[in-house]
Hints:
- With about 200 residues, the first copy, chain A, is α/β, with parallel strands linked by helices.
- In chain A, about 40% of the residues lie in helices and about 15% in strands.
- The first copy, chain A, is globular.
- The model of chain A has no long low-confidence stretch (mean pLDDT about 90).
Amino acid sequence: MIYPKSIASLIEQFQKFPSIGPKSAQRLAFYLLRMPLAEVQNFAKIIVEAKENTKTCDVCFNISTSSPCEICSSSTRDKSIICVVSESKDLIAIEKTNEYKGLYHVLQGLISPMDGIGADDIRIKELLSRLTNEDVKEVILALSPSVEGEATSLYLTKLIKPFGIKVSRIAFGLPVGGDLEYADEITIAKALEGRHEI
Amino acid sequence: MIYPKSIASLIEQFQKFPSIGPKSAQRLAFYLLRMPLAEVQNFAKIIVEAKENTKTCDVCFNISTSSPCEICSSSTRDKSIICVVSESKDLIAIEKTNEYKGLYHVLQGLISPMDGIGADDIRIKELLSRLTNEDVKEVILALSPSVEGEATSLYLTKLIKPFGIKVSRIAFGLPVGGDLEYADEITIAKALEGRHEI
């Protein structure tokens, strides 16, 4: 006897999630089976509702419950700046700082030839059409300093420059509270490269 | 703008699971939102079905789709040996070895005064009643070598011995493939203690 079929398929489902291996999937499934039935039904309802209520904003491609999204349709936002991010998660991370009041554009990925993701597979066309139609003065590239992030940033810079729009990139360097001793070489190199006069 | 309400409650739900922190919960939620609606609905269905179809065996307290469970009602099992485990997960782990052909008893926990779990909170009474009513010759204690596992094993040994039933405990020692150099002191001590003549 291994698992009853219904439990086996539950474990299998959990294993499909990112960074959930067989052991974690088993732990999640057993936790769920110990929950009262009403809570399990509620969980199932929340899952389906979240999916059903989630739209993608047709302007910035952020996940939202409406399209255009809250940010794109807000009247207090500075519509002359667009911050380009890879995923909605990154947008949320920036929103949490409460420092940025411009608009966003979610690429829904990064250029990654290794994974077969080209410039046409992410929302670059849509960004360019926004630059053509909207009165944008600056584009901030807030992409990770990974190989894919660098490649996408370079590609976007080349495409946006001809519009006569300022292109900037968020700073990379030592994280606040980080210790120079424990920082990796690339971060230190980036921190040196990005040094500014005081 | 932080998360739309439906997404926030989805993340919150995932955070209730064991060893899922805010970041992992967010990752799981976003993965789910990227799945096609039909798959999400199927996932929700599987969750509820697994819960609805899962019973606890009235004899051994293993999770099962029937009661008595497949193992308890099997005619090929050796009914004179009961292997005592803490959780159904442990039972599955032993079943996977294909080495054990006896019955089981799932305690559904371990004695842990720190967490307020006493002997009456786990299925010890039920084990003793099985020992009284069934023709059992050996009880194997397959509990972890943790403080709680040790305490529960000691407690059970004291209770079972008067029945005149053999009580044994699984061996602790170096894991197969493990290197002596990297083993912790307690494991090495257990391995020395459990040495046998060759």
